[in-house]
Amino acid sequence: xxxxxxxxxxxxxxxxxxxxxxxxxxxxxxxxxxxxxxxxxxxxxxxxxxxxxxxxxxxxxxxxxxxxxxxxxxx
Length: 75
Description:
Shape: globular
CATH topology: Recoverin, domain 1
CATH architecture: Orthogonal Bundle
Structural class: mainly alpha
């Protein structure tokens, strides 16, 4: 029970800070493993698609890890 509460709390903290998105999700979305998430790859996450243009600061058509790290899910 204590472990379950610990992991639930940890998951909530990661989700609240966006850390989960900057970690495993980046690698998951970067299907072609070229170090960036293109618009097509971003379509797997609707919230990311909506913010793609604003997040792509250098306007190269893909999100690098730093750009993706600023992504936040808006509730």
